[in-house]
Amino acid sequence: MIVITQPNATESQINEIVDRIRELGLDAQISRGASRVIIGVIGPESLLREKRLAVMPGVEAIVPVLKPYKLASRDSRNPSSVTIGNVKIGGNEDVVLICGPCSVESSEQIVSIAKVVKKSGAKILRGGAFKPRTSPYSFQGLREDGLRFLAEARAETGLPVITEIMDARDLAIIEKHADCLQVGTRNMQNFSLLKEIGRSRLPVLLKRGYSATINELILSAEYILSEGNMNVLLCERGIRTFETATRYTLDLSAVPLLKSKTHLPVIVDPTHALGVREFVPQMSLAALAAGADALMIEVHDSPELAKSDGDQALTPEIFADLVPRLRAVAAAVGRSL
Ligand code: PEP
Ligand code: MN
User: Fold this and answer.
1) What is the pTM (predicted TM-score) of this model?
2) Which single residue of 31, 228, 234, 270 has CA 20 to 30 Å from 72?
């Protein structure tokens, strides 16, 4: 079982909780997050059912270990929402559109795309400053300059920004500029990175590894949660199958499955799954029908000149045309957008 402390629990309350656990002959493993402390309790099953712990000052919840992923599990929890900047995703909140280019290419580019996607209904801006490219000779991102340009776009539009982290050494600088960390498909099982960002105050959008099972995705989320960062969003972005007609295969069954197994918000990124612009609108509609809490869609105002993923980016016009149709599908499944 694990003990989750309240965000405002004092050191002496935490020490008393740990002392009580040890008095019972159990072992306590402590992980400190930005706002909470997570105490893993290890010992005989009968003692783990100790009721007095639950009423101690500073204890928020006691979660039994029924599944390998105890903090992510849906067991006895309502779907949770995660706040990025001033935007809530998940639970009963409105469906959210997260849009922007694959890569931040210049201040002018990101500011103008931010304005145009906001006008059509996007609530969060995306853009990569550190890019995970298959070839070391491809554009690797503008790094710190890219982060500054994202922050400029936020200042101009008010849209919170999300950007990918590839290396824990970049955490401090990304935390300075961004509102949400993205872990890309290639790093879903980079466990040392997951542990590090588990100690960040920023929410984390965790993309499914393109060869990862649903359980592996949830266990990767558990790495972040178990370090005390409770703000994790799961993202289906396509998996590798025998089919090569699309870049990856969008596994939409992941949406209801993840929602039945976890309380975490579920996002779908149809852009990277499809790899071609033409089919992104249909699969975006399908993702909302399946119950996604948010969509991540790449939009570029000159896709033919994009430094990465130009073939799959929607133009601002295609995106603007898609939004009313997304609204209709969201309404059909009882959500607003
Ligand atoms: C991206 O969002 O630009 C990206 C690289 O995504 P993924 O990790 O899903 O390939
Ligand atoms: Mn991309």
Assistant:
1) 0.88
2) 270
Report in angstroms the alpha-carbon separations of 310 from 38, 153, 319. 43, 20, 14
Q: How far is the CA of 192 from the centre of ligand 2 (A)?
A: 24
| Ligand 1 interacting residues, C-beta cut-off 6 A | 102, 128, 132, 184-185, 207, 237, 269, 272
The Cα–Cα gap between 62 and 178 comes to 32
- The SS3 of residue 155 is helix
Three-state DSSP class for residue 235: strand
Alpha carbon nearest to ligand 1 atom 3, residue: 102
Q: Whose CA is nearest to atom 8 of ligand 1?
A: 184
Structure tokens at 261: 């197994």
Report how far residue 129's alpha carbon sits from residue 141's, in angstroms, rounded to the nearest whole number. 5
